[in-house]
């Protein structure tokens, strides 16, 4: 499966209904609150819609008759209406603000969980910076839309519909004339929204690229300085930054493009009301009060419309972000657990049956590999750089699935094991050990079920009994030595020691060491070998090494090159193969 995220998403614009359906999954759990907020929205709209009608009545009946008592009473009623509307609109805003924050929280959790469930291939194919940008920036835009815009959006729609109803029912012809400019707007909006969304998508993508660039720069800072490449990266950064700037400006222009058009339509609406309304009054078909309320309704139709235009772009931004986020959410791990099968009784702990493997978009790295590794034996994989040793080991621990063929672990297809079972059976010390920030103690206990509740003193005792004490002595403060993020402050050899202890203490059935001793001095290396020799008899060891002295004691040596994994037979033969790259065994 190809896991690379594209962001070349659909250019077509969605209807309001499709949009709501699309974001609905985010809101399902907020149904009650949304319903409550919506009822506040409706109340507020109704209150503000009633006011102009009352004003019209007050003008025509009391002001024109100079009945000041009536004016006062109506004035008080209208004031009460506005005050109530103020209260309800406070609650609607507050409720939606909370909804927005919760949506953001849930969305980030969902993405993070999804990321945790995706296979290694996904992380090979995507840049961390872009992923972080999706988790931070894109979710933020979505939440902003929910917390600020959704309420306004709906209240604007209600106000508009309500005003339109009042306009048409007060005087159908005049109402229709007032609304005509809005129809023109509808068409213009429809035409422009796809373009606006596209602009925003490009801008979000550029922001992701910027974030990737920053991340690569910071990660590789030392190399950049050592090779004096700062100028090069400065230039590259300023290019990416300029690109981001241009896309942001583009998006900004797109986002405000509708506003003036809407202003114009609103003015036309008012002009129509005045011209047509006055002509109606002069032919005795209309009253001054009605004209004033008509103006008010025309306003409360076009103002929300203008707001909707602004909100529409905020919606397009949110949708563009939602596309980028849902691209991650829709990915499925293509390393599923398959149905359990009966276990074959066998002495082999690991078996490759006709295994082929290629990396996505890469050439084939393994061709028809057949292997049989027996319980308790020590195997070595040797071969030239780039020959496929790490790849073979990755298939053994199911970091990837073979393109063809089967990997069998303890008599069952490796795909039938849950991630937990698999991790219990196989310990893999990676070529590039990965540590987490914390202490040596934390890192050793990482994912260790057996000792997870142990105190430092208790773990020390275990370490002593397993003969690992010497290794811990290589750290200034022993188990309590602090490790910074990424393990920058300890040596590579020390990292390998921690990875080694971590793997050994989990007592796996198969222990894979990928160049695990490449950066360790010969004395410590000897120590590791003694520890390996003392592991339970049934532990199968697979050692990948360039230094041949490390594999002297192997029961079997495999030579890995050009897609083949073949038995070397003897140490002497392995050396010959390495020297001549000879594939004929
Ligand atoms: N994540 C990856 N994506 C695509 N191709 C890869 C990836 N990792 C390795 N390869 C390719 O697979 C081939 C085998 O790589 P592998 O890491 O298995 O070699 P190796 O024998 O472990 O080498 P070394 O001795 O340097 O550790 C190489 O040609 C490499 O280019
Ligand atoms: Mg390797």
Structure description:
The protein is α/β, with parallel strands linked by helices. It folds into two domains: 26-329, ABC transporter type 1, transmembrane domain (ABC transporter transmembrane region fold, Up-down Bundle), CATH 1.20.1560.10; 348-580, 3-Layer(aba) Sandwich (Rossmann fold). It is 62% helix and 11% strand. It contains 18 helices and twelve strands. The protein has a six-stranded mixed sheet with strand order 6-9-10-3-11-12, with helices on both faces. A four-stranded antiparallel sheet has the order 2-1-4-5, covered by helices on one side. Strands 7-8 form a two-stranded antiparallel ribbon. The longest helix has 50 residues, at 68-117. The mean pLDDT is 86. It binds adenosine-5'-triphosphate and magnesium ion (MG). Magnesium ion (MG) binds at residues 389-390, 431, 514.
Helix and strand sequence? HHHHHHHHHHEEEHEEHEEHHHEHEHEEEH
Low-pLDDT segments: none
Structural class: alpha/beta
User: How many individual β-strands?
Assistant: 12
Q: Helix share of residues?
A: 55-70%
What is the terminal separation in angstroms? Answer: 35 Å
Here the CATH topology of the largest domain equals ABC transporter transmembrane region fold
Could you tell me the radius of gyration in angstroms?
35 Å
**Which compounds are bound in this model?**
adenosine-5'-triphosphate, magnesium ion
> How many individual helices?
18
Read across the widest sheet, the strand sequence of neighbours is 6-9-10-3-11-12
Summed over residues and divided by their number, the pLDDT gives a mean of: 86
The CATH level-2 architecture of the largest domain is identified as: Up-down Bundle
**Apparent shape:** elongated
CATH class of the largest domain: Mainly Alpha
CATH superfamily of the largest domain: ABC transporter type 1, transmembrane domain
Percent of residues in β-strands? 5-15%
Number of spatially distinct domains? 2
Tell me about the largest β-sheet: 6 strands, mixed
Organism: Candidatus Uhrbacteria bacterium CG_4_9_14_3_um_filter_41_35
Subcellular location: Cell membrane
Keywords: ATP-binding, Membrane, Nucleotide-binding, Transmembrane, Transmembrane helix
Domain ABC transmembrane type-1: 35-317
């Amino acid at each position: 499966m190809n896991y690379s995220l594209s962001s070349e998403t659909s250019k077509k614009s969605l209807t309001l209904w499709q949009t709501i359906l699309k974001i609905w999954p985010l809101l399902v759990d907020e149904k009650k609150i949304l319903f409550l907020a919506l009822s506040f929205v409706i109340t507020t709209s109704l209150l503000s819609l009633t006011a102009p009608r009352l004003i019209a009545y007050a003008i025509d009946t009391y002001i024109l008759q100079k009945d000041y008592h009536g004016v006062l009473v109506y004035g008080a009623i209208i004031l009460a209406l506005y005050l109530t509307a103020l209260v309800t609109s406070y609650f609607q805003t507050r409720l939606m603000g909370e909804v927005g924050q919760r949506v953001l929280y849930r969305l980030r959790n969902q993405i993070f969980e999804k990321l945790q469930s995706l296979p290694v291939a996904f992380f090979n194919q995507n840049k961390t910076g872009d992923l972080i940008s999706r988790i931070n920036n894109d979710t933020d835009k979505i939440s902003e839309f929910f917390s600020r815009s959704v309420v306004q959006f709906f209240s604007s729609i209600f106000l508009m519909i309500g005003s339109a109803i009042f306009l048409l029912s007060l005087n159908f012809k005049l109402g229709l004339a007032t609304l005509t400019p809005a129809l023109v707007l509808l068409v213009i909006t429809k035409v422009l929204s796809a373009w606006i969304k596209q602009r925003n998508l490009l801008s979000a993508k550029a922001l992701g690229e910027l974030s990737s660039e920053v991340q690569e720069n910071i990660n590789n800072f030392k190399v950049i300085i050592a090779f004096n490449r700062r100028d090069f990266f400065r230039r590259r950064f300023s290019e990416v930054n300029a690109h981001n700037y241009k896309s942001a400006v583009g998006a900004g222009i797109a986002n405000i493009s509708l506003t003036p058009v809407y202003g114009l339509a609103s003015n036309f609406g008012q002009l129509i009301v005045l011209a047509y309304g006055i002509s109606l009054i002069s032919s005795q078909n209309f009253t001054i009060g009605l004209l004033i309320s008509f103006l008010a309704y025309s306003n409360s139709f076009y103002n929300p419309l203008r707001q909707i235009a602004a909100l529409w772009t905020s919606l397009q931004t949110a949708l563009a972000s939602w596309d980028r986020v849902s691209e991650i959410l829709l990915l499925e791990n293509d390393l599923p657990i398959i149905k359990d099968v009966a276990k074959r009784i066998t002495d082999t702990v690991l078996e490759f049956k006709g295994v082929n493997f290629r990396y996505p978009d890469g050439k084939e790295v393994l061709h028809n590999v057949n292997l049989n590794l027996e319980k308790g034996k020590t195997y070595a994989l040797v071969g030239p750089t780039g020959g496929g040793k790490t790849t073979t080991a990755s298939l053994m621990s199911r970091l990837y699935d073979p393109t063809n063929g089967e990997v069998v672990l303890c008599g069952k297809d490796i795909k039938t094991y849950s991630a937990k079972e698999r991790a219990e059976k196989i310990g893999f010390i990676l070529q590039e050990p990965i540590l987490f920030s914390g202490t040596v103690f934390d890192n050793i206990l990482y994912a260790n079920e057996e000792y997870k509740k142990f105190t430092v003193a208790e773990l020390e005792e275990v370490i002593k009994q397993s003969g690992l004490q010497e290794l811990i002595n290589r750290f200034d403060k022993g188990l309590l030595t602090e490790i910074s993020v990424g393990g920058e402050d300890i040596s590579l050899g020390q990292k390998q020691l921690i990875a080694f202890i971590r793997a050994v203490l989990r007592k796996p059935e198969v222990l894979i060491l990928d160049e695990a001793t490449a950066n360790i001095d010969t004395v410590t290396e000897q120590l590791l070998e003694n520890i390996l020799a003392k592991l339970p008899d049934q532990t199968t060891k697979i050692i990948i090494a360039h230094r041949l002295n490390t594999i002297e004691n192997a029961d079997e040596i495999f030579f890995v090159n050009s897609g083949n994994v073949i038995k070397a037979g003897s140490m002497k033969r392995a050396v010959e193969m390495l020297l001549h790259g000879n594939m004929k065994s």
